[in-house]
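tool_log.txt
---
The assistant was asked to compare two proteins side by side. It first ran the structure predictor on the initial sequence, then on the second. Raw inputs and outputs are pasted verbatim so the downstream comparison step can read them without reformatting.
(1)
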Amino acid sequence: KARDYINIQLKEFQVKRTAGLGTMYGPTDQQLQNAKGDKVKEQRIVEETLLPKLQQYLKEIDDGSSKECPKKQALCSALSTVIQRFFVTRSNPNSPVDKVHHFVSREKSFKSRLMAKNRKQDILGHNLRLQPYFEVTRCNHCQNILWGVSPQGYHCSNCELNIHRLCAKDLKEECPGPAQLKNAEGSKIGKFIDKLSTRNHHQGGKRAFSELE
């Protein structure tokens, strides 16, 4: 589905570009052609088009700190990866490029180092640890899918709770304690997860649908 969605977006972009609306996204085709192979002109395009867009996304994420925005985080990582891999020759801690996780970088960015300090949290008895998710998993707090740049959320090693990083700040239920998954049905942990799911179910449908759009 993701590939089909991207193909549709590419077709829409090509139609707008053919219609002469390509400047909606940045430089004209002629400007791009003239800049090809010219490092000075390429750098100017990066500074005038790509960096401002990255700064805009970062500002929107900061302004919306009360609500997680994995889509913008993924866009920031994709954009910073392109800039860093092809146009930036040296690292700069003050640059927005180095404040975002890069998809193919082996070096830890500023944000990665900051996140490393917050890999573990203890909230209301929950032993929360950041972890990557490799299959569809919903947040037990808001019912939305845990997705985006890895690690996507926290996992409680005691009660098997899965939750967005920002949703963890709103967690109000105490951890019922360790339990085996195979014995979870009808147990304290099972009732705890059911309580969370039932309480937030009326919000989950709309939010999950909006995330997939």
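(2)
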Amino acid sequence: MTPEKFQELLEAKNIDSLRSGFVTREKVVEDSLKQYQIAEHQVMKRQDKIIKKADGATENVKQWKLPVPYQKKIVELAVAFLFGKPVQLVQQSEGTDEVFGYLTDLWKDMRQNARNRELARTLFSETEVARLFFPQTEDPLTDENKSKPGVVKVRSMLLAKSLGDTLYTLFDSYGALQAFGRGYLVMEGEKEVEHFDVYQAKNIIYCTKKDDGWEVETKANPIGKIPASYYKQAQTEWADVQPLIERYEYLGSRRADVNDYSADPILILKGIVQSLPGKDEVGRVVELDGPGADASYLTPQMAVEMVKQERENLKEDIQFFTDTPDISLEKMATIGTTSGKAMELLFFQALLKAMRKHELFEEMIDREINIIKAFITTFVDTNPTIAQQAKNLKVGIEFGNPLPDSFEDVLNMLNLATGGKAIMSQKTAVSQNPLVKDADTEYSQLQGEETEDKVTLTI
């Protein structure tokens, strides 16, 4: 849709046609959510069995429906390896300390690290999510008070189908986001009212559907940037193994049905039964008579083992093809005191998967930093010096490794490199001790104790 066509439809208040010019992934997202929520799994559609009794009457026999939340497990572990440790913002420019301080303060104030995990969880399960930034004030915003300290607070919120939002995007031929739309419903009294908000670099357009058509209100965008970041991926984290998950659930449900019939032992008797033992009888004996008399239990052991083996194979394939590690208690117990490097190799697939995600998240977090910088120079501090610092500010993004740190491996390597010489001062070692709250006081006390020991030895 060209800018001219966009403006034409907007002026005509033809919002339905305007909205149809945007791209939406609503159908893909809805299908993804059905797979993510166990109540919507395919196995839940199994119908109860209707059997006919000897007297001609019919009876409904319950068919087990046992969904397995594999999708959630895959997503949660992917989130843990990506954002298990918070993202670190690193200042990579000089003379920008003040604006970088504003940035880190807002980052903490908006709880971005916690929101990052929530955002990743939503993206991995729905294939799209957006983060919207907006100014929040207690009093009406004016040109006079907008730059006063504490008047405007920058906030962010996630937008997703699971949160009641339908996302719309409009990209140009170069892949640059030209407009971002959000559709949602608001309860007004006892009636749901449809809203459609459009965010552009120059304007923010608020559309409300009334009985006689759309009501449109256009406001200037104060920061000059689209205040939203839009995340998208082609498919869910489990898409490639969805058939395997459905088969796993089906086998488990069928096994439960069979267990209802044959889990308890079934005694097969051949011949004429002379006597059966009582429940409390000691030395119980079954007496049979006649040619070929025999007694045995019905045990479909081969079928049970085949189902068990197939489910084990499915489990391994699901984890392997989604790069999802097995962190069950049984598996973790076999690891023991594995070194840090060995631990990284053990979880190498999951770490590689997280690294692939860095491509998208580094780009989008960088965009969000630029949005926050625009809010800083517009609302937080309008001093021209801050504006210049914001322009010069360069921020690096460092993703953490969720695996436990192995200092022993590092220390051994450094010790080997120095030929066994000391590699750390006592003062530095004390400051790194997690059990010490005040490193300076602790170090002074150690020095005093050493002095006392020397005096004692001299005496």
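---
observation on (2): The longest helix spans residues 348-380. The radius of gyration is 33 Å.
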